Amino acid sequence: MEADLPRMLEVVEGLSFTIPCLARAHPPPHYSWSRDGVGGELGSVGGGVGVSAGRVWVRGAVAGGARAGPNDAGGYTCVAANGAGTDTAHFTLAVVQEIQVSAHPPVQVSSGALGPPERGQGRQFGRFFSFLVFFFF
After folding, report:
1. Looking at CB atoms within 10 Å, which of 43, 62, 79, 86 has the fewest?
2. pTM for the full predicted model
3. What is the DSSP letter of 29?
4. Does an H or E element contain 128, and which?
């Protein structure tokens, strides 16, 4: 198997992913894929023929999926075999979520709030600010 292929792969949830398993051999090897914790093979194919096992597809030396989800995370094993022998490579797929940040509660600034507070308004702003500090800490 190709030693320089990454064995730990990371994909953002909802995006497509591929796991390459490349062997140099003559005659060309027959590839089979399995997944940790899932009984049986995901696919066993030779050449460019493709098969699908649920959300994950296999096309020769590559396994992948159209939309990565949490259930796709885990270990994948590729076995390449021909008349001269067999070789195995194990890959780990991590599915991560994008970070989304929002402010709660939404902060609204009126046009009058940009200048110095008028008499009697400082106390109201102070209470609001104290609320924000309490809310975030």
Report:
1. 86
2. 0.63
3. P
4. helix 122-136
